[in-house]
Write a structure and sequence with these properties.
By secondary structure, the chain is α/β, with parallel strands linked by helices. It has 6 helices and 15 strands. The longest helix is centred in the N-terminal third of the chain and has 17 residues.
Length: 245
């Protein structure tokens, strides 16, 4: 069972999205959705704040009166809500802002069933596989199991490569960066940045021409020429279209 929040100031858009979700649910007998609708962002925030409501997925328009979807997403993250946010909007104007709120998807209206199905397939597959994604690594003479989703980045320092994990643990490996990257190539979220870093796109907080900031607070200064390829990989990973703004 998955809880889904729909937030849009237009009833017709809520109807369309809910109908597509119901269609997806009918086609996947093992899936059950509980859908709640909100005509403005403040109602959604109040529901989450006062009723301990924790939606797994939040499909939200950006352009709404009183409070925009982007501002609402910032408040959600400040409240500690970790639901996967999907922005449904008429413009790509705010695509870069989605970095700051860790949006999982950015879809431009009109939304089709194929687009929504692709998003849900990816989300549900990631959730189902999360517990099965791990690496077995030899660290200090012992075999240690490392959950792939916990890896924020890998950094080369001299003869050692360091894995930075989401629980503030740093693991030193006596492997080459190339060997580590080969272990991670089957996971789309990992990208090589220069010769010294491997970055998990799921943990990118913000990206500029000079640096990448991870959600742990760690900053990675980008080598010359690496910004545009990294930016393209990020958008290809999170957006339905491969067209880069």
């Amino acid at each position: 069972m998955y809880r889904i929040a729909l937030c849009d100031d237009e009833e017709v858009e809520l109807d369309k999205t809910e109908q597509m979700l119901n269609c997806y649910e009918r086609e996947h007998a093992e899936i059950e959705f509980i859908i709640e609708r909100f005509l403005n962002a403040n109602n959604l925030l109040d529901r989450i704040r006062k009723k301990n409501y924790k939606p797994d997925f939040i499909f939200m328009d950006i352009y709404m009166p009183e409070k925009s979807g982007m501002d609402a997403a910032k408040e959600l993250r400040a409240m500690g809500n970790s639901g996967r946010i999907v922005f449904l909007t008429i413009s790509r104007e705010h695509a870069l802002d989605a970095f700051s709120v860790e949006a999982s998807q950015y879809l431009v209206k009109p939304i089709t069933e194929d687009m929504l199905s692709s998003v849900l397939d990816k989300f549900l597959q990631n959730l189902n596989e999360m517990s099965r994604k791990y690496l077995l690594l030899r660290i200090d003479g012992k075999i240690q199991r490392v959950v792939v989703s916990d890896i924020i980045c890998c950094e080369a320092q001299g003869k050692l490569q360091y894995l930075y994990l989401s629980d503030n643990i740093r693991l030193g490996l006596r492997r080459t960066m190339t060997e580590i990257y080969k272990m991670l190539t089957s996971y789309r979220e990992f990208v090589r940045v220069g010769v010294a870093y491997i970055v998990n796109l799921e943990h990118v907080q913000s990206l500029s021409t000079q640096e990448v900031e991870m959600d742990s607070g760690k900053k990675i200064y980008l080598p010359r020429g690496s910004y545009h390829p990294l930016r393209e990989r990020y958008f290809n990973y999170y957006c339905e279209s491969s067209e880069i703004l």
